[in-house]
Amino acid sequence: QVQLQESGPGLVKPSETLSLTCAISGYSIRSGYYWGWIRQPPGKGLEWIASMYHSGSTYYSPSLRSRVTISVDTSKNQFSLNLTSVTAADSAVYYCARFQRMAPNMWGQGTMVTVSS
Amino acid sequence: NFMLTQPHSVSESPGKTVTISCTRSSGSIAGNYVQWYQQRPGRSPTTVIYDYNERPSGVPDRFSGSIDSSSNSASLTISGLRTEDEADYYCQSYDSGNQVFGGGTKLTVL
Questions:
Q1: Of A105, A1, A19, nearest to B92 (Cα)?
Q2: Which bin fits B86, alpha (ψ -120 to 50), beta or left (φ > 0)?
Q3: A12, B48, B57, B103: which is deepest, by most CB within 10 A?
Q4: How close, in Å, is residue A29 to chain B by CA atoms?
Q5: Average pLDDT for B1-15
């Protein structure tokens, strides 16, 4: 059974970098699919952030492209998100997900990240 | 870039049928697959419809999807409404690597 588990700090200071990791179990990241991140501010809707293939092909949201990096560590079967220069507007539940044809078809449980001093 | 517009909320009685629309602002709705996700409070979204009208295993056939090219929109229809269907529903599509979610529709079953 494939499972995705997000991890990372729950609190980040303004102007710093938000870093999250998604560990995959039950499936090798090398076997296929795109993998990526989606976020949801409290009480608001879903926003796609970025997706990438294990070989390095990446897609970024136009609105976040300048601040986002997604990377894959095949040796640890995980992938990561870095979001720089965060503000309160970046406070959200961050989901990692598996994507098929540009659409998420499996989600992690989500992790809340609050940006505050 | 394009947007997907959904009604903020809909409500209907148990046993009835409800339809949630998702209108694409630019580009053809038929040009890229549309997905629908259900999100219950405090939970991760789950797929109820993918590729316009396909249901993942385990999703009841009360859920169906369609598109209308004349209005450039997709629709999610839920028949035989149950109280457990009360949730937020999001449409999703993409274009040239950019992925977009609709703003979400809160379904109340009362």
A1: A105
A2: beta
A3: B48
A4: 20
A5: 97
